[in-house]
Sequence to fold (298 residues):
Amino acid sequence: MIQYRFPLLRWLAFAVVPLWLAACGGSDGGGGGVVDTTDLGGVISAPQSTDADGDVNQISSAPVSNQSFTAAQSIPNPATIGGYVNLPFAGPTLGHSSDSGDERDMYRITAAQNQTLRLTIAEANNDLDMHLLDGSCSDGNGQCQTNCAKNPGGAMVVASSTANGNTTEQITVPTTGIYYVEVCAASGASNYLLTIGQSILSAGGFDPSADFVPGEVIVRFRDNAIAAAGGDRGIMAASVGLQAKAGGAGRAMLMDIGAGTERQRVMRNLGITRDRLTGIARATGVASSDKRDTLAVV
Fold:
């Protein structure tokens, strides 16, 4: 029987965006109001999976409408999207949608069963809703229209999160497939953050129901970590509380998560809480604490 050992996830690559800042000093106390200006060079790092709503209210942007199924914005998975919606004459003035409104944003995604869609609403006094719709929806199909209603009845509306006054709306994808995600303004106006996340079932592409060796993981360290440890696999393993079993610097290394106090130390080093362990057990259905702990470390 084949036994699977799952590797720890490596850091994501980041896109680098130039940033120039002007730092202003205060008055010199002599009443002259002297301001010192200094140019600072630097970078902002953003994940490659980050995207932006095509029609935000910013007047300096060139809006690309995404308010219909036809014009829906295709986004990757996983992804984090920053956006904005508003009812007519709600929110900041002198923007693209200040008067006409930008009542909904439409996104097209391919999602896996049990993945989570999370909508974080910036302005708590305003109400945004989120709907998950069948991927075969079209603008002419009345069964696909939510109209940002509190109780959408369209047969093609797969799931909705419409709680009034929430700062977060959340939907769990019922089955793997192609979907539309609608973010709409039920009242007022707000910036938002839409996160298409991966559940433990799909993260890393592994199947927790498959047979694997409980308590063992395969790790590949980054070059700078190897250099800092002088190539000593024991030091590298100890840096996260693991125990080296096989392999060496520059190669994948087999490690053990230990038992008892050693395992507790691993959990602390990796920030794995009791709530996290409970969530993984529920999401995967594993009954063995050894398997649960291994998946948590992975």
Q: What stands out?
A: The two ends are 21 Å apart (CA to CA). Residues 1-31, 200-205 have pLDDT under 50 and may be disordered.
